[in-house]
Design goal:
The chain is mainly alpha-helical. It has a domain of 106 residues. Helix content is 81%, strand content 1%. It has 14 helices and 2 strands, in the order H-H-H-H-H-H-H-H-H-H-E-H-H-E-H-H. The protein has a two-stranded antiparallel sheet with strand order 1-2. Helix 3 crosses helix 4.
Length: 414
């Protein structure tokens, strides 16, 4: 007797194909999302181990070619590792020592400039359009001192928590050092041993994938080194030409900060802008900000492999300074900011087009008008201390959405 239709086939036929496909996509996306959340939770719980191991892996990608070079020239592997590590520590330590010493030497002059700036602000508050009298300024100063004294206990507890943080930093640094030594000396043997957990029929493919991934990481670290060097030279030269104090140590911080993804370059650039603001005034601070954006973005804009024949960017063009500007200005929820960063990072490798508002001939007039309007809104946002009015924030969001939509429309066309 032939078997009748199964319950599943009858149920599938009772709904439209669109509903079936939507349901299939929905549960798969839920599984992927749950897996990502579980992985992030594990990383958060084990961050004291995961972060140092990740840093050691990146440092190994930078130093391993040098160790292999010395090994091929007949140097003992252990001696090559020790020489490279000591040389790296000496270079980084020398840069940090130079930065700290220059900041200490330049601090008195910077303090005098800060005092002059504060006096100028006080004079502007007293004689400017606000017409605040000296008594109100003294009252504000007294209120600030009272607030510090009243919160002394909180500051003390914060210092104690800082001591705990220092302990964690020292522990993490030692873990980075020991992990780096093992990876440089016998990383290939360690990887071969770990991959024995996979079945023999797929083991070689896993090893090939791991080697290819590590070679990609080596390329990424080398490119980051070159980008950091170009950024430091360009920004340091610009600061020196403008006569901003501490130009060389700030350039050194820009170089080191470039190795910290997303945050490092932003923090180093922000520090340079603050020093320019204190020492030279608002105009020089805005010029410094424009210099940083121009130098850091020039490398990515100059890469012809990222552009199409009609001047669109193929993949997200790594404008992380603009992303940071939007995050500071719009202040989205932390989970939304993290999601945006992950999506944009993935878009760097996706076949998605992004518009170059100046070079793309399609709708060029509209794009240029949007770019000029965006620049005006950005200046207003900077003048408001990255706390724009609702209208300005909405305008920035709408222009960003417009540029993204134009790129997506190009992605759909052949």
């Amino acid at each position: 007797m032939p078997a009748g239709p199964s319950v599943d086939s009858v149920a599938d036929q009772s709904v439209t194909p669109l509903v079936r496909k939507t349901a299939a996509w929905a549960w798969r996306l839920l599984v992927i999302f749950a897996t990502i959340v579980a992985l992030l939770w594990m990383v958060k719980r084990l961050e004291l181990i995961v972060v140092p191991v990740a840093l050691a892996t990146m440092l190994a990608a930078l130093l391993l070619p040098v160790v292999d070079f010395l090994d091929r020239r007949g140097a003992p592997r252990g001696g090559a590792v020790a020489l490279v590590l000591l040389g790296g520590i000496a270079v980084v330590g020398g840069i940090l020592t130079f930065v700290v010493s220059q900041f200490i030497q330049g601090a008195p002059a910077l303090v005098d400039q800060v005092s002059t700036s504060i006096k100028g602000v006080g004079d502007w508050l007293t004689h400017g359009p606000l017409h605040i009298n000296q008594q109100q300024i003294d009252q504000f100063r007294k209120s600030a001192i009272d607030a510090l004294q009243n919160n002394q206990e909180k500051l003390t507890s914060g210092a104690l928590s800082t001591a705990g943080t220092v302990t964690e930093i020292v522990t993490g640094a030692l873990l980075v050092l020991f992990t780096l030594i093992f990876v440089l000396h016998g990383g290939r043997n360690i990887f071969a041993f770990i991959t024995k957990v996979f079945p023999p029929q797929v083991r070689e493919r896993v090893r090939d994938a791991g080697r290819a991934g590590f070679h990609s990481l080596i390329g990424y670290v080398r490119a980051t080194f070159l980008v950091a060097l170009v950024d430091a030279v360009g920004i340091g030269t610009g600061l020196a030409i403008m006569g901003v104090p501490l130009a060389l140590p700030l350039a050194s911080l820009v170089f080191l900060g470039a190795f910290v993804p997303l945050v490092g370059a932003v923090v180093a650039g922000f520090l340079a802008v603050i020093v320019a603001l204190i020492a030279k005034g608002l105009i020089y601070a805005l010029i410094t900000l424009g210099l940083i954006i121009a130098v850091t973005g020039a490398i990515y804009f100059a890469d012809r492999r990222m552009k199409t024949s009609d001047s669109y960017f193929r993949g997200f063009p790594a404008l992380w300074n603009i992303v940071a500007f939007y995050l500071f200005a719009l202040k989205p929820a932390p989970w939304l900011a993290a999601l945006a960063i992950l999506v944009l990072a993935a878009a760097s490798f996706a076949p998605i087009y992004f518009i170059h508002p100046v070079r793309v001939p399609r709708w060029r007039i509209v794009n240029l008008v949007a770019l000029v309007l965006w620049a005006a809104l950005a200046i207003v946002t900077l003048l408001r201390g990255l706390d724009p009015p609702s209208v300005v924030a909405a305008g920035l969001a709408v222009i960003a959405i417009y540029f993204v939509i134009v790129g997506l429309l190009r992605s759909q066309s052949p």
